[in-house]
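Ticket #4471: complex job returned nothing on first submit. Input attached below:
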Amino acid sequence: MNLFKADLHIHTVLSPCGDLEMSPRMIVNTAAIRGIDILGVTDHNSTKHGKVISKLAVEKGIFTLCGAEVTTREEVHCLAYFENFDALDDFQQYLDKHLTPVKNDPKIFGYQVVVDEHEQILEFEERLLISSLDQGIDQVAAKVHSLGGIFIPAHINRGKFSLLSQLGFIPPDLKADAFEITRATTPEQMRNKFPYVAKSSFITSSDAHWPDAIGSSFSMFRMETRSFTEIMKALHNLDQRMVFPANFATA
Amino acid sequence: MKTTEIVEKLGLKVYSGAHGLDREIKGCYVSDLLSDVMGNADADYLWITLQTHKNVMAVASLKDLAGVILVSGLEPEPDVILQSDEEGIPILGTDMPTFQIAGKLFELIR
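Support reply: We reran it on our side without changes. The output follows.
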């Protein structure tokens, strides 16, 4: 069994709040320097930088989990990841269909651009990506799972845009593959507070919006190899695979 | 004032929990953050919100609220209706947005 360092929550320049420095190449190069083995690409309500980051990451020996950070109707942020580009494209269509149509004003929210591996701009995303979908959290979870994806509510203990801030407590029957927490709490605290998720996995991630934050918080996966199936097994504690948060601040 | 009078005066829809309508209310709380409602709403209050997730019912039950008013024509999800009927905490509804329904309710019970 091997240990892999994973930062599964990273925003690119496509997210309005993502720093302009957060190009696919910058992200991959920084992740490589920080020793990241598994990188999660999670822009707000868009999957459009997953493929280019996957391509660049392969060259650096980094495994990429492509997905998005979805804003549900309740304004709960949830991470979603997909095994292949077909599922990723299907999910992009779902996002396109259900995102509340608000036009982005770059002066207020920042630019939302899709770029290629050479940092050439391919597309300006016109719709404000931090709007919410018109789909409730259970509907989003069901959609992600229907595409074989991984569904992880993000930073659930944060004071805004989280499961706990929006919905008060973890819904006992929520179909989550794991929960992401910030360093303000621990899995033990969450399990004590919500005994019905005692068997769930918890991860920590950087939620990086600028290069220096990449890998500033991460999780460790214990599994054979880096693959979507192995990661899913680790999240569910199957076949001796496991994941544990590794809260850790860089200088 | 009882919930049933408020339903009548404001023309509210009664989605569920009708057997809980005959209850004296002590106030109203307006919020869409369930964490905030858990911290700040009081027993026998009506709660105005646009959230329809089933946790709404759990919070209403936990805080012993008199009922929930969903705004802007939003409808409760099926499991919310089920729990509302079980617990006798009515789920009410209006086509008015939050500002208007809150204003009218404020005038009624202040």
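Chain A is about 25% helix and 25% strand. Closing as resolved unless it happens again.
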